Amino acid sequence: MQYDPVKKTVGRIFSGPVAMRKLFYLSLDLLLLRAWHVRKALKVLAREYPGEARILDAGSGFGQYSWRMSRINSKWSIKAVDIDPEHIESTREFFRMTGLSERVVCEKLDLTELKEEETYDIILSVDVMEHIERDELVFRNFFRALRPGGSLLISTPSDMGGSDVHGEGETSFIEEHVRNGYGTGDITRKLEGAGFRNIRTAYTYGRPGSVSWLLSMKIPIRMLNRSKLSIIILPVYYMFTFPVAVILNFFDISLTHKTGTGLLVSAIR
Domain span at residue 104? Predict the structure, then answer.
């Protein structure tokens, strides 16, 4: 099932006026459970970096996390990079229109070609590593690009069904993924191999989150893949399912999960 074409279509719909883009970001913040977990983790990092800091949004997508970080601390400077030129152009235009283009810079970049050294205090990578075959190379690039003592924060699917794969022979619900998720031991080993320390992993998308994902993302994506006309009935669908998904998201970030289909990983250089 193709997820990226659906994302692109939705992004184009909301790529116009600033107010529409902000509404889009707000909707993503409320609807996407990963955004809840990342937001919670960023609040912790904000206390560790109360002053000036340089941040790399590594795989910025629509730019919603760059927008959030720009609002968390007005002293933070952010570079948003993505391999998709369409994402970068629309994100750059948004920050230009909001008057933040000096503080939030947008560039097209393949993370396997990241060459900067000791530049960033924080690197954030949300739902990116599952798309990159040469992940260990990227982890080494992240390590090199961070300043000593800098923080890495990653959100990615786990191998507990994060790509909706639950058994041998099954294919990913998200066909653009090059792996079906990370195990905690696997990603810890790879980050240690890159030089990172103080590596912490936590499962996200526990039982409440898995149901939220089904209601808020999987069913709508299936509908849109069957017919683009489904976008007409989605507002009615979300009118009933959105409140339920928000409640489930709240429970997911409030609980500690023994297993889950997502992983939140932090590490220190």
Answer: 4-268
DSSP the chain: ---HHHHHHHHHHT-SSHHHHHHHHHHHHHH-HHHHHHHHHHHHHHHH--S-EEEEEET-TTSHHHHHHHHH-TTEEEEEEES-HHHHHHHHHHHHHTT-TTTEEEEE--GGG----S-EEEEEEES-GGG-S-HHHHHHHHHHHEEEEEEEEEEEEBTTTTTS--STT---SSTT-SSS-B-HHHHHHHHHHHT-EEEEEEEES-HHHHHHHIIIIIHHHHHHHH-GGGGGTHHHHHHHHHHHHHHHHHHHHHS--SS-SEEEEEEE-
pLDDT tens figures, 178-189: 888 999 999 999
pLDDT of the residue at 164: 58
Q: State the Cα–Cα distance between residues 108 and 79, nearest whole angstrom.
A: 10
In angstroms, rounded to a whole number, what is the distance separating the alpha carbons of residues 224 and 207? Answer: 25
Number of domains in the chain: 1
Nearest CA among 176, 71, 94 for reference residue 132? 176
Which positions of the chain have pLDDT values less than 70? Answer: 1-15, 162-175
- How confident is the model at residue 12, as a pLDDT? 65
Condensed to tens digits (0 to 9), the pLDDT of residues 105-125 reads 999 999 999 999 999 999 999
Q: Is the dihedral of CA 175, 159, 134, 81 positive or negative?
A: positive
Rounded alpha-carbon distances, angstroms, from residue 64 to 171, 179, 233: 29, 24, 25
Q: Give the tens place of pLDDT for each residue, 120-152.
A: 999 999 999 999 999 999 999 999 999 999 999
CATH code at 155? 3.40.50.150
